[in-house]
Design brief:
Blueprint: H1 3-31, H2 37-50, H3 57-70, H4 74-86, H5 93-106, H6 110-123, H7 131-144, H8 148-161, H9 168-181, H10 185-198, H11 203-219, H12 228-236, E1 247-255, H13 258-271, E2 276-282, E3 285-295, H14 298-310, E4 316-318
């Protein structure tokens, strides 16, 4: 082939690449100003497919995967992230690998999550800024698998070695749950109390406080007694439920298993209220809450508040 023709084809190719780069860049800049994430997904997806050689393709890919996750389109998010995970030369390989692991957890594919995190851990130095996030990911994976001893070890490793980790209070909360589920309740309570003391402004403090109350529920479950006098006093202590045109729903406690929920339910029933257990499904996880329906009359509310306060049981109103 004539050398001039080859040279001309090469020049045309470069010109085309340059033109595509400019078009992709303009489209990408424009979409940064879009507030509707649904539109952002549509437009970024077009750039992703049309301009695979765009210099910011990996940055765009990571942004698009975040938006897919926001839209709960995990299939497309995984498709993008797996490609970035396999490309070890990608500038955003580490971020994509961490995100991929979390999506695997969200889609109940803990085995793949562990594989991704474990492989990533092998490539990182302990001083790498991503290292504690990988340990956190491994711990969270074991936690979701109910492998509490394995999760416990990784949370302890994280908390001991990386005190400035940004999610340290939540890692402590998860560690306390692991202690509770490995029959080390004193350590669980101690860890919850450390969260209350050291992280007063965190969300973890709120849920740690609720867990301490929950543990107390179980510890304070009334024991069976042969004291006939006490039993007679209980039976004579009748509850007056004042009628009203509508009901309020009050909730106490949240548990991962029905055993503890039933313990709290029994406490409420022993006090004199018809409590019940409601199964709650959120983000693919099942939990159990104890509830009481009361006619909408302030006398009922004050009555149950007085009774439950005596048992150190907090409760709150819920909408459904």
């Amino acid at each position: 082939m004539n050398i001039k023709i080859i040279f001309l084809a090469f020049i045309l190719l470069l010109a085309n690449l340059h033109a595509n780069e400019n078009r992709a860049n303009e489209a990408y800049k424009k979409i940064q100003k879009e507030d509707d994430y649904k539109i952002s997904i549509s437009e970024l997806d077009k750039i992703y497919d049309k301009y695979p050689n765009y210099s910011k393709h990996d940055e765009l890919s990571l942004k698009l995967s975040y938006l897919y996750i926001l839209d709960e389109d995990y299939k497309n998010a995984i498709k993008i992230l797996e490609k970035m995970y396999k490309d070890k030369k990608s500038e955003f390989n580490k971020e994509a690998s961490l995100l991929l692991g979390s999506v695997y957890i969200s889609t109940n594919n803990e085995k793949k999550a562990l594989e991704a995190y474990t492989q990533m851990l092998k490539t990182l130095d302990k001083n790498d800024k991503f290292y504690p996030y990988v340990i956190f990911g491994i711990a969270n994976t074991y936690f979701e698998m109910n492998s509490y001893y394995e999760a416990r070890g990784n949370y302890e490793r994280l908390i001991k070695g990386y005190k400035n980790f940004e999610d340290i209070s939540f890692a402590m909360y998860r560690l306390a749950i692991c202690y509770e589920n490995t029959e080390d309740v004193p350590k669980a309570i101690n860890t919850f109390n450390n969260i209350l003391r050291d992280y007063p402004d965190s969300y973890s403090r709120e849920i740690a406080q609720k867990k301490i109350s929950t543990i107390k529920f179980v510890e304070n479950t009334p024991k069976k007694t042969n004291d006939k006098k006490v039993m007679a006093e209980k039976k004579s202590d009748k509850i007056t439920i004042h009628p009203a045109s509508s009901n309020n729903i009050y909730q106490m406690g949240r548990f991962k298993d029905t055993t503890r929920a039933n313990s709290l339910k029994k406490i409420i029933q022993d006090i004199g209220y018809n409590s019940y257990i409601k199964e709650d499904l959120k983000d693919g996880n099942t939990s159990y809450v104890v509830r009481v329906d009361l006619p909408d009359d302030n006398r009922n509310i004050e009555e149950i508040r007085k009774r439950l306060s005596a048992e150190n049981i907090p409760f709150f109103k819920v909408s459904k």
